[in-house]
Amino acid sequence: MNLQSLLAARLAAKGPIRVGLIGAGKFGSMFLTQVPTVRGIEVTVIADLDPERAKAACRTVGWDSSRIAGTRFVARGSDAIGDERVEVVIEATGNPAAGVAHALEACAAKKHIVMVNVEADALAGAVLARKAREAGVIYSMAYGDQPALISEMVDWARSAGFAIAAAGKGTKYLPAYHTVTPDGVWQHYGLTAAEAKAAGMSSQMFNSFLDGTKSAIEMAAVANACGLDVPHDGLIFPPCGADELASVLRPKPLGGVLDGDGVVEVVSSLHRDGRPVARDLRWGVYVAFKAETDYAAACFKQYGLPTDASGRYAAMYKPFHLIGLELSISVLNVALRGEPTGSCRVWRGDAVTVAKRNLKAGEMLDGEGGYCVYAKLIPAARSLELGALPIGLAHRVELLRDVAAGAFVTSADVVLDDNSQAVQIRRAMEREARPATPAVAAE
Predict the structure, then answer these.
(1) Taking Cα atoms as reference points, which of 285, 283, 309, 284 lies closest to residue 297?
(2) What domains can you pick out in the chain, each with its CATH number?
(3) What is the pLDDT averaged over residues 54-66?
(4) Is there a contact between 258 and 165 (Cβ–Cβ < 8 Å)?
(5) What is the rounded CA–CA span in Å between residue 331 and residue 236?
(6) Residue 207 — φ and ψ, nearest 5°?
(7) How big is the chain by its Cα radius of gyration, in Å?
(8) Mean pLDDT throughout 293-305?
(9) 55-74 in b/e burial notation, b at 16+ Cβ within 10 A?
(10) 345 and 140 Cβ atoms separated by less than 8 Å
(11) Which residues contact 2 (CB under 8 A, 6 or more apart)?
(12) pLDDT at 207 over 60
């Protein structure tokens, strides 16, 4: 609640916070449109595979010619990280391998990193966060994106002395969505393919929101940042509106849908028959929590907080999130307070690869939101036991054997590049997570 006073002191002492942005897509563009109105933040360099497209994005979001002329545009993320003026790097490419590489480069360069790239965080966040700590820099989730907002709400509830029942977000979900491909995605958004193309919308990216992949990735990030449990066999997406959170998101013995307290879960804006849920949280985030004493439960009632029938369980929520429009909150926290707006702390959940259809040996997987696979959230320990292929490594890899529809794809089922940095970092995280084998005493 004092970022503005801290920023004023910073401006007086050292001048503006200088940022390097990698990736000028939708998230990056939403941040860029706010930069001129946030006194004290300057985007010094923007890296994008197509620098001219990045310049066009700046014009589209309202930058004037002088601001564009004063910004350096480059094609490589390394050039943005290496710019000596930059102190905070924003990684917004959405490419997991690129995100891993840029995070490691930022650590080596002693630059703070705001990780919009939740795909990379779900793939190898535990290692990336550790590397940042060792380098003395901050590795942070991106405020405005749902994982950071959920993490903030969990921190609030715990700091107020409540036990977490569940935390998560809303989305539009039906079980049939798991097998939707980019060819059929737009009917579920009420758009034609032509309308989507004219708006510059990627069918594969939007399909990753629909088929459950993005939910698995984001909830893995939340579980790993907050130390929450994940369902054994994937998110269940219960239909649930804002008024039902406290009743639905509680343990089964109490009439809820959870196996226990302290988990991540995503609620659906649709009933299973397709009817809309009243007061849905499709665009929002929530935390469900419980009072630890009779007195606290009585206070819930006295101050009008909706609860379950027991009076113990309650919930708080935000009905919307503003994506990149809120990203400056992360930049300010990192630079002024030396604190992340959420960060991976432990490997609890993994977003792993599941076949959308019967897959044949020799096929090339096309990653999240594609024609071949989707992601399911499972416990990290179970992922290790299965040898499951993380969705972040399911891009352009060849299948060695057939995989049935609905089955997990394992790392042994595909050809992974042993020289890939992303593969090496992921394997390092897996090694660190496995229990040490006791040494055998010499006879």
Answers:
(1) 309
(2) 3-144+324-337 (3.40.50.720), 147-173+212-320 (no CATH), 349-430 (3.90.1210.10)
(3) 96
(4) yes
(5) 34
(6) -70, -30
(7) 22
(8) 97
(9) bebbeebebeeeeeeebbbb
(10) no
(11) none
(12) yes
Residue 437 in this model has a pLDDT that exceeds 80: no
- Average pLDDT of the residues in 269-280: 97
The neighbour count for residue 379, using CB atoms within 10 Å, is: 18
pTM for this one?
A: 0.95
How do residues 96-134 score in pLDDT, each as one tens digit? 999 999 999 999 999 999 999 999 999 999 999 999 999
**Token pair belonging to 339:** 């604190």
pLDDT at 438: 53
Can you spell out the DSSP letters for 381-413? HHHHHHTBPBGGG-EEEEBSS-B-TTPBPBGGG
Determine the pLDDT at residue 199.
73
Provide the pLDDT for residue 440. 47
The whole-number pLDDT of residue 435 equals 74
- Displacement of CA 432 from its chain's centroid (Å): 22
Residue for token pair 């469900």: 288
Nearest Cα neighbor of 121 from 144, 93, 149 is 93
The two three-digit tokens of residue 369, written as one number: 């939101």
pLDDT at residue 197 in the model: 80
User: The tokens of 21 are what?
Assistant: 């942005």
CA distance 125 to 271: 34
Which residue has 């080596």 as its token pair? Answer: 108
Give the list of residues 6+ apart from residue 440 with CB closer than 8 angstroms, or none: none
CB-count exposure of residue 120 (10 Å: 0-12, 13-18, 19+):
buried
pLDDT digits (tens, 9 = 90+) for 127-172: 999 999 999 999 999 999 999 999 999 999 999 999 999 999 999 9
307: which DSSP letter?
Answer: B
Which residue reads 């057939």 in tokens?
A: 402
3-state secondary structure of 239: strand
Give me 184's structure tokens: 């059929």
